[in-house]
């Protein structure tokens, strides 16, 4: 039996949201009984030091704790690893180097989902991920132009993420709406929600001013595609 | 760092619902940042053979697969185990005997939540759990009288559970409403939702005809109480 390894807890609700997407996508692919669903091992470690703070130079590195989680998943013989936290992907190469199991890259999956013809792409992420340039580099490599937030807009993005982590989804949505309005005024054609807390706020918006790419959903799609192609929904 | 072990996947959405309750209860207890939440290890094994079918004599025993999951959690040094599936608790003693970590019993947590003064309690569960008498014995031991469904009502309960497992929440709610109406007519004062799929349907009901005890929520409450009492929300 092949297990999908999830390194989660960053944050807790985003991991649950990711699992729910995996299950819904597997149902859409035809699973109607428990036994047709995908086995997973979820190492849910909310105590991992804050990724964004570390990237901004304000806190301890999460890398030892991330590698601890990656090691645990590999010791339990998972066949694939996914990490529903964009900021953690700053340390992708270090995690990949210590993992037997392949790791799907959340930002690669998200950028791959951008529609053809689009040029200006808004980057919504933690302050740390924005500062690290993770999405900007990946967008440039594929011929897209990044639209980065100004300070006031990043403040709304940060507040949205903090509110989701505190379970205040209503308030988080207001901050996200203000951020997306600003990006729309800058001529951004699509917004990448490059932090897995942001889709939880976006799901509550009746009419986002520009279309969004949901990094949680794109990671879930890539995971389910991989798993179904390998037949992991079939018990041995 | 102490880990809460969850033996899940029975079914997939019920496990996600359980995790979401754990996180919400931890937030309500004051957690506002990732690092104040509870670490978990979730062994999510939807391929475990159908518990209800086995209890009705129609399928292979899930016990070897359940013990495989319990073994995996113990090898990873979890300090507590919870299983968000009522039917699996038919094998509680066998699992407990092979587990170093204590296992909270979902039916004990649910029956303990019944309000004083109540006498007639509706039992809603899989056909297998109903047949096993798990809830009826526990209710009788505490002085409650079980109201068991007739065949037509059990058909609605089974259909509700099957629909939730297939992701058809809307249809599942109609079946649950018909079952609860029948129990109300029998004079049941409270209904125990003794299957972790049922609360997913109940959450969509605007006005259940009798109050319900939600076994997913009661297991989550017992888990969070235990974990917070042991300080597991504080990183080492």
What features would you describe in this structure?
- The structure is a homodimer of 236-residue chains.
- Chain A is globular.
- In chain A, helix 10 links the parallel strand 6 (190-193) and strand 7.
- Chain A contains eleven helices and seven strands.
- Chain A has helices spanning 12-28, 51-55, 63-75, 92-97, 106-112, 127-132, 134-141, 151-165, 169-185, 198-202, 215-229, and strands at residues 4-8, 40-44, 80-82, 120-124, 145-147, 190-193, 212-214.
- Chain A has a four-stranded parallel β-sheet.
- Chain A has two domains: 4-105 and 218-229, Rossmann fold (3-Layer(aba) Sandwich), CATH 3.40.50.1860; 108-215, 3-Layer(aba) Sandwich (Rossmann fold), CATH 3.40.50.
- Chain A has 236 residues and is of the alpha/beta class.
- In chain A, helix 5 (106-112) crosses helix 11 (215-229) and helix 8 packs antiparallel against helix 9 (169-185).
- At the A-B interface, helix 1 and strand 2 of A face helix 1 and strand 2 of B.
- Strand 2 of chain A pairs antiparallel with strand 2 (40-44) of chain B, so a sheet runs across the interface.
């Amino acid at each position: 039996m092949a297990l999908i390894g999830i390194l989660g807890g960053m944050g807790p609700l985003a991991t649950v949201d990711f699992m729910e997407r995996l299950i819904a996508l597997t149902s859409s692919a035809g699973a109607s009984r428990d036994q047709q669903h995908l086995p997973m091992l979820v190492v849910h470690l909310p105590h991992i030091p804050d990724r964004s703070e570390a990237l901004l130079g304000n806190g301890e590195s999460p890398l030892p704790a991330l590698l601890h989680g990656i090691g645990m998943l590999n010791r339990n013989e998972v066949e694939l690893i996914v990490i529903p936290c964009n900021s953690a992907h700053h340390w992708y190469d270090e995690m990949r180097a210590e993992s037997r199991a392949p790791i799907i890259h959340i930002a690669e999956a998200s950028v791959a989902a951008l529609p053809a013809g689009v040029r200006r792409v808004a980057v919504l992420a933690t302050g740390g991920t924005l500062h690290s340039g993770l999405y900007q580099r990946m967008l440039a490599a594929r011929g897209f132009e990044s639209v980065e937030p100004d300070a006031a807009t990043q403040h709304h993005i940060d507040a949205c993420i903090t509110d989701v982590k505190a379970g205040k989804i209503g308030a988080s949505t207001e901050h996200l709406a203000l951020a997306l309005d600003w990006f729309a005024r800058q001529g951004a054609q699509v917004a990448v929600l490059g932090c897995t807390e942001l889709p939880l706020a976006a799901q509550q918006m009746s009419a986002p001013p520009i279309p969004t790419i949901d990094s949680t959903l794109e990671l879930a799609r890539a995971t389910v595609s991989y798993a179904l192609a390998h037949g992991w929904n079939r018990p041995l």
